Description:
Number of domains: 2
Number of strands: 13
CATH architecture of the largest domain: 3-Layer(aba) Sandwich
CATH topology of the largest domain: Aspartate Aminotransferase, domain 2
Structural class: alpha/beta
Strand order of the largest sheet: 2-8-7-6-5-3-4
CATH class of the largest domain: Alpha Beta
Order of helices and strands: HEHHEHEHHEHEHEHEEHHHEEHEEEH
CATH superfamily of the largest domain: Type I PLP-dependent aspartate aminotransferase-like (Major domain)
Helix content: 25-40%
Bound molecules: pyridoxal-5'-phosphate, (2S)-2-amino-4-(2-amino-3-hydroxyphenyl)-4-oxobutanoic acid
Mean pLDDT: 98
Number of helices: 14
Largest sheet: 7 strands, mixed
Shape: globular
Amino acid sequence: MFKIEEAIKLDAQDEISQYKNEFYLMKDVLYMDGNSLGLLSKRAETTLLNLLDSWKTLGIDGWTEGENPWFYMSETVGGKMAPLVGGKLGEVIATGSTTSNLHQLVATFYKPTGNKTKILADELNFPSDIYALKSQIALKGLDPAEHLVQVESDDGRFLSEDRIIEAMTEDIALIVLPGVLYRSGQVLNMEKIAAAANDRGIPIGFDLCHSIGSVPHSLHEWGVDFAFWCTYKHLNGGPGSVGGLFVHEKNFGTAPGLAGWFGSKKESQFDMNHTMDPAEDSSAFQVGTPHVLSLAPVIGALEMFDEVGIDRIREKSLKLTGYMMKLVEHELSEFGFTVGNPIDDTRGGHILLEHQEAARICKALKEAGVIPDFRAPNGVRLAPVALYNTFEDVWHTIQKLKVIMDEKRYEKFENKRGVVA
Ligand SMILES: Cc1ncc(COP(=O)(O)O)c(C=O)c1O
Ligand SMILES: Nc1c(O)cccc1C(=O)C[C@H](N)C(=O)O
Protein backbone atom coordinates (compact mmCIF):
# COMPACT_ATOMS: atom_id res chain seq x y z
CA MET A 1 0.00 0.00 0.00
CA PHE A 2 2.70 2.53 0.89
CA LYS A 3 5.48 1.30 -1.40
CA ILE A 4 6.21 2.71 -4.84
CA GLU A 5 4.88 -0.52 -6.40
CA GLU A 6 1.37 0.58 -5.37
CA ALA A 7 1.81 3.91 -7.21
CA ILE A 8 3.06 2.05 -10.29
CA LYS A 9 0.01 -0.23 -10.13
CA LEU A 10 -2.37 2.74 -9.83
CA ASP A 11 -0.72 4.43 -12.81
CA ALA A 12 -1.09 1.26 -14.85
CA GLN A 13 -4.85 1.29 -14.10
CA ASP A 14 -5.21 4.96 -15.04
CA GLU A 15 -7.27 5.26 -18.24
CA ILE A 16 -6.25 8.85 -18.95
CA SER A 17 -2.53 8.53 -18.23
CA GLN A 18 -1.59 9.25 -21.86
CA TYR A 19 -2.63 12.89 -21.45
CA LYS A 20 0.52 13.70 -19.50
CA ASN A 21 2.38 13.36 -22.83
CA GLU A 22 0.39 16.33 -24.09
CA PHE A 23 2.10 18.67 -21.62
CA TYR A 24 5.50 20.27 -21.27
CA LEU A 25 6.53 18.64 -18.01
CA MET A 26 9.43 20.45 -16.40
CA LYS A 27 12.58 18.36 -16.26
CA ASP A 28 13.20 16.74 -12.87
CA VAL A 29 10.30 18.67 -11.37
CA LEU A 30 7.16 17.38 -9.68
CA TYR A 31 4.66 20.11 -10.49
CA MET A 32 1.98 20.30 -7.78
CA ASP A 33 0.80 23.85 -8.43
CA GLY A 34 -1.89 23.40 -11.08
CA ASN A 35 -4.31 25.23 -8.77
CA SER A 36 -2.33 28.46 -9.23
CA LEU A 37 -0.95 28.06 -12.74
CA GLY A 38 -1.52 24.92 -14.81
CA LEU A 39 1.22 23.73 -17.16
CA LEU A 40 1.52 24.49 -20.86
CA SER A 41 0.18 21.82 -23.20
CA LYS A 42 1.31 21.31 -26.77
CA ARG A 43 -2.24 21.96 -27.96
CA ALA A 44 -2.40 25.30 -26.13
CA GLU A 45 0.93 26.22 -27.68
CA THR A 46 -0.35 25.26 -31.14
CA THR A 47 -3.49 27.37 -30.92
CA LEU A 48 -1.46 30.32 -29.66
CA LEU A 49 1.03 29.96 -32.52
CA ASN A 50 -1.84 29.61 -35.01
CA LEU A 51 -3.29 32.83 -33.70
CA LEU A 52 0.01 34.62 -34.25
CA ASP A 53 0.09 33.18 -37.72
CA SER A 54 -3.40 34.50 -38.48
CA TRP A 55 -2.25 37.98 -37.43
CA LYS A 56 0.88 37.56 -39.58
CA THR A 57 -0.97 36.42 -42.69
CA LEU A 58 -4.41 38.04 -42.43
CA GLY A 59 -3.91 41.36 -40.64
CA ILE A 60 -7.26 43.05 -39.93
CA ASP A 61 -9.12 40.29 -41.79
CA GLY A 62 -8.23 37.93 -38.96
CA TRP A 63 -11.33 39.28 -37.21
CA THR A 64 -13.58 37.41 -39.61
CA GLU A 65 -11.36 34.93 -41.46
CA GLY A 66 -9.02 32.04 -40.67
CA GLU A 67 -9.42 29.00 -38.46
CA ASN A 68 -10.61 30.92 -35.39
CA PRO A 69 -12.01 34.32 -36.47
CA TRP A 70 -11.25 36.70 -33.61
CA PHE A 71 -14.64 38.41 -33.69
CA TYR A 72 -16.41 35.22 -32.56
CA MET A 73 -13.71 33.71 -30.35
CA SER A 74 -15.18 34.77 -27.00
CA GLU A 75 -18.45 33.06 -27.91
CA THR A 76 -16.85 29.89 -29.32
CA VAL A 77 -14.51 29.48 -26.35
CA GLY A 78 -17.45 30.22 -24.04
CA GLY A 79 -19.36 27.41 -25.73
CA LYS A 80 -16.45 25.03 -25.09
CA MET A 81 -16.41 25.98 -21.40
CA ALA A 82 -20.19 25.58 -21.02
CA PRO A 83 -20.08 21.80 -20.30
CA LEU A 84 -17.56 22.40 -17.53
CA VAL A 85 -19.97 24.63 -15.63
CA GLY A 86 -23.21 23.01 -16.71
CA GLY A 87 -24.28 26.04 -18.71
CA LYS A 88 -26.40 26.10 -21.88
CA LEU A 89 -24.94 27.47 -25.08
CA GLY A 90 -25.21 31.25 -24.87
CA GLU A 91 -24.98 31.29 -21.07
CA VAL A 92 -21.17 31.24 -21.04
CA ILE A 93 -18.75 33.74 -22.50
CA ALA A 94 -14.95 33.85 -22.38
CA THR A 95 -14.03 37.35 -21.27
CA GLY A 96 -12.18 39.50 -18.77
CA SER A 97 -10.50 38.26 -15.62
CA THR A 98 -12.01 36.83 -12.47
CA THR A 99 -12.04 40.17 -10.68
CA SER A 100 -13.17 42.26 -13.66
CA ASN A 101 -15.99 39.79 -14.33
CA LEU A 102 -17.03 39.95 -10.69
CA HIS A 103 -17.16 43.74 -10.98
CA GLN A 104 -19.31 43.44 -14.10
CA LEU A 105 -21.72 40.97 -12.50
CA VAL A 106 -22.08 42.84 -9.21
CA ALA A 107 -22.59 46.08 -11.14
CA THR A 108 -25.36 44.22 -12.99
CA PHE A 109 -27.11 42.27 -10.24
CA TYR A 110 -26.57 44.35 -7.08
CA LYS A 111 -29.58 46.63 -6.87
CA PRO A 112 -29.92 47.84 -3.29
CA THR A 113 -33.44 49.08 -2.62
CA GLY A 114 -35.36 49.89 0.56
CA ASN A 115 -34.13 47.68 3.38
CA LYS A 116 -32.56 45.20 0.97
CA THR A 117 -29.10 46.69 0.66
CA LYS A 118 -26.51 44.16 1.80
CA ILE A 119 -24.21 41.73 0.02
CA LEU A 120 -23.72 38.33 1.65
CA ALA A 121 -20.22 36.84 1.28
CA ASP A 122 -17.95 34.83 3.57
CA GLU A 123 -14.78 35.40 5.54
CA LEU A 124 -12.70 32.81 3.68
CA ASN A 125 -13.04 33.95 0.07
CA PHE A 126 -10.04 35.13 -1.96
CA PRO A 127 -9.16 38.74 -1.00
CA SER A 128 -9.67 40.15 -4.50
CA ASP A 129 -13.38 39.24 -4.36
CA ILE A 130 -13.82 41.01 -1.05
CA TYR A 131 -12.01 44.11 -2.34
CA ALA A 132 -14.31 44.15 -5.38
CA LEU A 133 -17.47 43.72 -3.30
CA LYS A 134 -16.49 46.50 -0.90
CA SER A 135 -15.73 48.86 -3.77
CA GLN A 136 -19.07 48.06 -5.46
CA ILE A 137 -20.90 48.83 -2.23
CA ALA A 138 -18.99 52.12 -1.91
CA LEU A 139 -19.86 52.99 -5.53
CA LYS A 140 -23.52 52.84 -4.51
CA GLY A 141 -22.77 55.42 -1.81
CA LEU A 142 -23.12 52.82 0.97
CA ASP A 143 -20.74 51.89 3.77
CA PRO A 144 -19.01 48.53 3.13
CA ALA A 145 -18.50 48.01 6.88
CA GLU A 146 -22.26 47.90 7.27
CA HIS A 147 -23.38 46.45 3.96
CA LEU A 148 -20.96 43.58 3.45
CA VAL A 149 -21.96 40.59 5.59
CA GLN A 150 -19.27 37.90 5.79
CA VAL A 151 -20.38 34.50 7.07
CA GLU A 152 -17.91 33.30 9.67
CA SER A 153 -16.03 30.03 9.77
CA ASP A 154 -15.48 28.22 13.08
CA ASP A 155 -12.03 26.95 12.25
CA GLY A 156 -10.70 29.22 9.49
CA ARG A 157 -10.94 26.32 7.05
CA PHE A 158 -14.53 25.43 6.29
CA LEU A 159 -17.90 27.09 5.85
CA SER A 160 -21.21 25.65 6.95
CA GLU A 161 -23.89 25.67 4.26
CA ASP A 162 -26.58 25.90 6.94
CA ARG A 163 -24.95 28.95 8.43
CA ILE A 164 -24.79 30.56 4.98
CA ILE A 165 -28.49 29.86 4.48
CA GLU A 166 -29.35 31.27 7.91
CA ALA A 167 -27.58 34.48 6.90
CA MET A 168 -29.90 34.93 3.88
CA THR A 169 -32.04 37.45 5.71
CA GLU A 170 -34.51 40.07 4.44
CA ASP A 171 -31.82 42.75 4.10
CA ILE A 172 -29.66 40.73 1.65
CA ALA A 173 -29.74 42.02 -1.93
CA LEU A 174 -27.03 39.78 -3.43
CA ILE A 175 -24.95 36.70 -2.55
CA VAL A 176 -21.39 35.99 -3.78
CA LEU A 177 -19.54 32.86 -2.64
CA PRO A 178 -16.69 30.62 -3.79
CA GLY A 179 -17.50 27.23 -5.35
CA VAL A 180 -14.32 25.72 -3.94
CA LEU A 181 -12.43 27.52 -1.18
CA TYR A 182 -8.94 28.53 -2.29
CA ARG A 183 -7.17 27.50 0.92
CA SER A 184 -8.93 24.40 2.28
CA GLY A 185 -10.29 23.22 -1.06
CA GLN A 186 -13.76 22.68 0.46
CA VAL A 187 -16.40 22.25 -2.27
CA LEU A 188 -19.50 24.12 -1.20
CA ASN A 189 -22.84 22.50 -1.92
CA MET A 190 -23.73 25.05 -4.58
CA GLU A 191 -26.99 23.30 -5.43
CA LYS A 192 -28.31 23.54 -1.87
CA ILE A 193 -27.16 27.11 -1.37
CA ALA A 194 -28.55 28.26 -4.74
CA ALA A 195 -31.92 26.61 -4.01
CA ALA A 196 -32.15 28.50 -0.72
CA ALA A 197 -31.23 31.79 -2.42
CA ASN A 198 -33.78 31.16 -5.18
CA ASP A 199 -36.49 30.45 -2.58
CA ARG A 200 -35.81 33.83 -1.02
CA GLY A 201 -35.56 35.66 -4.35
CA ILE A 202 -31.95 36.73 -3.75
CA PRO A 203 -29.63 36.70 -6.81
CA ILE A 204 -26.63 34.43 -6.22
CA GLY A 205 -23.25 34.09 -7.93
CA PHE A 206 -20.23 31.83 -7.47
CA ASP A 207 -16.49 32.29 -7.98
CA LEU A 208 -15.41 29.11 -9.79
CA CYS A 209 -11.65 29.79 -9.98
CA HIS A 210 -10.79 26.68 -7.98
CA SER A 211 -13.61 24.50 -9.21
CA ILE A 212 -13.71 24.88 -13.00
CA GLY A 213 -11.82 22.04 -14.65
CA SER A 214 -11.59 20.28 -11.31
CA VAL A 215 -15.14 19.46 -10.23
CA PRO A 216 -18.37 19.17 -12.26
CA HIS A 217 -21.10 21.83 -12.01
CA SER A 218 -24.73 22.09 -13.13
CA LEU A 219 -25.18 25.86 -12.87
CA HIS A 220 -28.19 26.04 -15.17
CA GLU A 221 -30.05 23.23 -13.44
CA TRP A 222 -29.20 24.62 -9.99
CA GLY A 223 -30.67 28.00 -10.93
CA VAL A 224 -27.45 29.90 -10.16
CA ASP A 225 -27.81 33.49 -11.38
CA PHE A 226 -24.20 34.08 -12.40
CA ALA A 227 -20.65 32.77 -12.03
CA PHE A 228 -17.14 33.86 -12.98
CA TRP A 229 -13.70 32.25 -13.13
CA CYS A 230 -10.15 32.25 -14.45
CA THR A 231 -8.66 29.83 -16.97
CA TYR A 232 -5.05 29.77 -15.81
CA LYS A 233 -5.40 27.22 -12.97
CA HIS A 234 -7.08 23.87 -13.66
CA LEU A 235 -7.83 24.79 -17.30
CA ASN A 236 -4.13 25.37 -18.13
CA GLY A 237 -4.79 28.46 -20.28
CA GLY A 238 -1.53 30.22 -19.34
CA PRO A 239 -0.55 33.19 -17.16
CA GLY A 240 -3.14 35.94 -17.49
CA SER A 241 -5.33 33.90 -19.86
CA VAL A 242 -8.83 35.24 -20.45
CA GLY A 243 -11.44 34.28 -17.83
CA GLY A 244 -15.10 33.42 -18.19
CA LEU A 245 -18.54 34.17 -16.90
CA PHE A 246 -21.95 32.51 -16.80
CA VAL A 247 -25.28 34.30 -16.73
CA HIS A 248 -28.38 32.12 -16.38
CA GLU A 249 -30.82 32.49 -19.27
CA LYS A 250 -33.51 33.58 -16.79
CA ASN A 251 -31.44 36.78 -16.49
CA PHE A 252 -31.00 37.42 -20.21
CA GLY A 253 -32.14 40.92 -21.03
CA THR A 254 -30.78 42.36 -17.76
CA ALA A 255 -28.80 45.42 -18.81
CA PRO A 256 -25.04 45.05 -18.18
CA GLY A 257 -23.90 47.21 -15.27
CA LEU A 258 -20.71 48.04 -17.16
CA ALA A 259 -21.50 48.58 -20.82
CA GLY A 260 -19.11 48.49 -23.75
CA TRP A 261 -19.35 47.93 -27.47
CA PHE A 262 -18.32 44.24 -27.43
CA GLY A 263 -21.50 43.58 -25.45
CA SER A 264 -23.49 44.59 -28.52
CA LYS A 265 -25.32 42.29 -30.91
CA LYS A 266 -22.70 41.22 -33.44
CA GLU A 267 -24.72 42.40 -36.41
CA SER A 268 -25.19 45.96 -35.11
CA GLN A 269 -21.87 46.47 -33.27
CA PHE A 270 -20.25 48.21 -36.22
CA ASP A 271 -23.23 50.51 -36.91
CA MET A 272 -21.51 52.86 -34.45
CA ASN A 273 -24.75 54.11 -32.87
CA HIS A 274 -24.59 55.88 -29.53
CA THR A 275 -27.50 53.78 -28.27
CA MET A 276 -26.26 50.32 -27.42
CA ASP A 277 -28.10 47.30 -28.79
CA PRO A 278 -26.98 44.63 -26.28
CA ALA A 279 -26.61 40.96 -27.22
CA GLU A 280 -29.47 38.81 -25.95
CA ASP A 281 -27.32 36.31 -24.09
CA SER A 282 -24.18 36.31 -21.91
CA SER A 283 -22.24 38.05 -24.71
CA ALA A 284 -23.88 41.25 -23.45
CA PHE A 285 -21.57 41.23 -20.42
CA GLN A 286 -18.39 41.75 -22.42
CA VAL A 287 -16.94 45.23 -22.38
CA GLY A 288 -14.11 45.95 -24.82
CA THR A 289 -12.07 44.17 -27.48
CA PRO A 290 -11.27 40.59 -26.46
CA HIS A 291 -7.66 39.83 -25.49
CA VAL A 292 -7.30 37.37 -28.33
CA LEU A 293 -3.64 36.56 -27.70
CA SER A 294 -4.53 35.48 -24.17
CA LEU A 295 -7.59 33.62 -25.36
CA ALA A 296 -5.89 31.60 -28.07
CA PRO A 297 -4.10 29.06 -25.80
CA VAL A 298 -7.38 28.36 -24.00
CA ILE A 299 -8.78 26.87 -27.22
CA GLY A 300 -6.15 24.12 -27.32
CA ALA A 301 -6.19 23.61 -23.58
CA LEU A 302 -9.95 23.00 -23.59
CA GLU A 303 -9.81 20.30 -26.28
CA MET A 304 -8.54 17.83 -23.71
CA PHE A 305 -11.38 18.57 -21.30
CA ASP A 306 -13.78 17.94 -24.14
CA GLU A 307 -12.16 14.60 -24.95
CA VAL A 308 -11.78 13.31 -21.41
CA GLY A 309 -14.89 14.85 -19.82
CA ILE A 310 -15.03 16.45 -16.40
CA ASP A 311 -16.40 13.32 -14.69
CA ARG A 312 -13.32 11.25 -15.49
CA ILE A 313 -11.08 14.15 -14.48
CA ARG A 314 -12.87 14.43 -11.13
CA GLU A 315 -12.67 10.68 -10.59
CA LYS A 316 -8.90 10.60 -11.10
CA SER A 317 -8.40 13.80 -9.11
CA LEU A 318 -10.17 12.30 -6.09
CA LYS A 319 -8.01 9.18 -6.40
CA LEU A 320 -4.83 11.24 -6.57
CA THR A 321 -5.67 13.41 -3.56
CA GLY A 322 -7.04 10.38 -1.67
CA TYR A 323 -3.78 8.53 -2.27
CA MET A 324 -1.79 11.60 -1.25
CA MET A 325 -3.72 11.87 2.03
CA LYS A 326 -3.10 8.20 2.84
CA LEU A 327 0.61 8.68 2.28
CA VAL A 328 0.60 11.84 4.41
CA GLU A 329 -1.05 9.96 7.25
CA HIS A 330 1.36 7.05 7.01
CA GLU A 331 4.63 8.87 6.31
CA LEU A 332 4.28 12.27 7.97
CA SER A 333 2.30 11.64 11.14
CA GLU A 334 5.19 12.50 13.47
CA PHE A 335 5.99 15.89 11.91
CA GLY A 336 3.15 18.07 13.18
CA PHE A 337 1.12 18.57 10.01
CA THR A 338 -2.63 19.11 10.14
CA VAL A 339 -4.66 18.18 7.08
CA GLY A 340 -6.67 21.35 6.43
CA ASN A 341 -8.81 20.11 3.53
CA PRO A 342 -11.99 18.03 3.78
CA ILE A 343 -11.00 14.37 3.89
CA ASP A 344 -14.25 13.22 2.30
CA ASP A 345 -15.43 13.84 -1.26
CA THR A 346 -16.21 17.48 -0.53
CA ARG A 347 -12.56 18.27 -1.22
CA GLY A 348 -11.63 19.96 -4.50
CA GLY A 349 -8.47 19.42 -6.52
CA HIS A 350 -5.82 20.10 -3.92
CA ILE A 351 -4.82 19.20 -0.40
CA LEU A 352 -3.77 21.65 2.29
CA LEU A 353 -1.14 20.75 4.85
CA GLU A 354 -0.95 23.20 7.71
CA HIS A 355 2.31 23.63 9.61
CA GLN A 356 3.89 26.49 11.53
CA GLU A 357 6.99 26.21 9.31
CA ALA A 358 4.93 26.11 6.09
CA ALA A 359 6.65 29.01 4.30
CA ARG A 360 10.09 27.48 4.59
CA ILE A 361 8.87 23.93 4.02
CA CYS A 362 7.63 25.21 0.64
CA LYS A 363 11.08 26.64 -0.09
CA ALA A 364 12.71 23.33 0.81
CA LEU A 365 10.23 21.47 -1.42
CA LYS A 366 11.15 23.72 -4.33
CA GLU A 367 14.82 23.07 -3.71
CA ALA A 368 14.04 19.35 -3.80
CA GLY A 369 12.23 19.69 -7.15
CA VAL A 370 8.62 19.80 -5.92
CA ILE A 371 6.52 22.87 -6.78
CA PRO A 372 3.85 23.53 -4.12
CA ASP A 373 2.48 26.86 -3.07
CA PHE A 374 2.39 28.56 0.26
CA ARG A 375 -0.74 30.28 1.50
CA ALA A 376 -0.43 32.52 4.52
CA PRO A 377 -0.35 32.04 7.38
CA ASN A 378 0.54 28.33 7.51
CA GLY A 379 -0.57 26.40 4.43
CA VAL A 380 1.29 24.13 1.99
CA ARG A 381 -1.05 23.51 -0.95
CA LEU A 382 -0.38 20.49 -3.16
CA ALA A 383 -2.45 19.94 -6.29
CA PRO A 384 -1.86 16.69 -8.18
CA VAL A 385 -3.58 17.37 -11.50
CA ALA A 386 -5.53 14.61 -13.25
CA LEU A 387 -4.38 15.44 -16.79
CA TYR A 388 -0.65 15.43 -16.13
CA ASN A 389 0.30 14.14 -12.69
CA THR A 390 0.80 10.48 -11.88
CA PHE A 391 0.43 8.43 -8.71
CA GLU A 392 4.21 8.04 -8.84
CA ASP A 393 4.52 11.84 -8.75
CA VAL A 394 2.40 11.82 -5.61
CA TRP A 395 4.51 9.08 -4.04
CA HIS A 396 7.78 10.90 -4.76
CA THR A 397 6.37 14.20 -3.50
CA ILE A 398 5.53 12.74 -0.12
CA GLN A 399 8.86 10.91 0.09
CA LYS A 400 10.70 14.16 -0.57
CA LEU A 401 8.61 15.95 2.02
CA LYS A 402 9.42 13.22 4.51
CA VAL A 403 13.16 13.65 3.97
CA ILE A 404 12.82 17.44 4.34
CA MET A 405 11.01 17.01 7.65
CA ASP A 406 13.19 14.20 8.91
CA GLU A 407 16.43 16.06 8.24
CA LYS A 408 14.92 19.49 9.04
CA ARG A 409 16.16 20.71 5.66
CA TYR A 410 13.72 23.64 5.85
CA GLU A 411 15.72 25.19 8.68
CA LYS A 412 18.23 26.80 6.37
CA PHE A 413 15.46 29.00 4.89
CA GLU A 414 13.69 31.97 6.41
CA ASN A 415 10.08 31.17 7.38
CA LYS A 416 8.73 33.98 5.22
CA ARG A 417 6.88 33.90 1.91
CA GLY A 418 8.36 35.05 -1.43
CA VAL A 419 6.95 38.10 -3.29
CA VAL A 420 4.72 35.82 -5.38
CA ALA A 421 4.02 32.80 -3.24
C1 LIG B 1 -10.93 32.26 -5.82
C2 LIG B 1 -10.21 33.35 -6.58
N1 LIG B 1 -10.86 34.49 -6.84
C3 LIG B 1 -10.25 35.51 -7.50
C4 LIG B 1 -8.94 35.40 -7.91
C5 LIG B 1 -8.34 36.58 -8.62
O1 LIG B 1 -8.33 36.31 -9.96
P1 LIG B 1 -7.86 37.34 -11.10
O2 LIG B 1 -6.47 37.74 -10.76
O3 LIG B 1 -7.95 36.50 -12.33
O4 LIG B 1 -8.80 38.47 -11.11
C6 LIG B 1 -8.22 34.21 -7.66
C7 LIG B 1 -6.82 33.99 -8.07
O5 LIG B 1 -6.06 34.74 -8.51
C8 LIG B 1 -8.88 33.18 -6.97
O6 LIG B 1 -8.26 32.04 -6.68
N1 LIG C 1 -3.35 34.83 -10.22
C1 LIG C 1 -2.13 34.58 -9.68
C2 LIG C 1 -1.03 35.38 -10.07
O1 LIG C 1 -1.24 36.36 -10.96
C3 LIG C 1 0.23 35.12 -9.52
C4 LIG C 1 0.38 34.07 -8.63
C5 LIG C 1 -0.68 33.30 -8.21
C6 LIG C 1 -1.94 33.59 -8.72
C7 LIG C 1 -3.10 32.83 -8.28
O2 LIG C 1 -3.95 32.59 -9.07
C8 LIG C 1 -3.23 32.43 -6.90
C9 LIG C 1 -4.54 31.81 -6.64
N2 LIG C 1 -5.65 32.70 -6.87
C10 LIG C 1 -4.69 31.22 -5.26
O3 LIG C 1 -5.61 30.47 -5.06
O4 LIG C 1 -3.93 31.47 -4.36
